[in-house]
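subagent[fold] <- orchestrator: predict structure for attached chain, return tokens only, no commentary.
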Amino acid sequence: MTRFLQILFLAITNPFYNLGLFVWEGFSFGRYLWWWRLRLAFLFFYLSESPYAVIKREGFRAPVTMDNLVYGETPCLTLKKILEKAKISSSDHFVDLGCGRGLSVMFVRMFFNIPSTGIELLPTFVEKAKKIARRLSVDKVDFIRENLAWITEAETRQGTVFYLAGTAFNDELWAKVVLRLELLPKGVKVITLSEEIASEKFRIDSVEEFYFSWGKTEVYFQEKIV
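subagent[fold] -> orchestrator:
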């Protein structure tokens, strides 16, 4: 009964919590015309089908189990704070591993003015992200359709800062992704949610909590050391 009440409480309060995050984001970025264009473009392109509907329709054909496809998008304001904490610079190239709709990729390109790449498994997310980028004339962004467990060195070669919101990944997929991350060059920064990279090839620089659509979550800032 207690568990049921907790779930009910979250179901009732979460929409108000997310509305608060959006309003907070609006106060922070509302003075930028590009932010309004970005938000309206994503609203338009997903008006007929939500991200959750896309996952439900395409997820059963994906080479991963459905529990790995739970959708959650990092708020732009939270991502801004995370990348500022990571001391992102004008010489960096941002890579979002499992970018979903690609909002984070385009936000980073437009706010920080650095090249950005999104890697995503579901085709509709990739196709629509490319269309939105063209509609908004956003250059120096790329979207690659690939399974994170199979990403190659060629697909990640230019990246210097990698972002992985793998909170919903099961142990099997997480282990496979870690093996791919171990192939990254020395000095690359990797930011993960909820769990660190369990590898001697990475050093944890810091751990800090940030606000996400589902609540506060620990964010691990790591660097490839060998």
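orchestrator: received. Logging for downstream: The two ends are 50 Å apart (CA to CA). Strands lie at 94-97, 116-120, 141-145, 161-164, 189-193, 202-212, 215-224.
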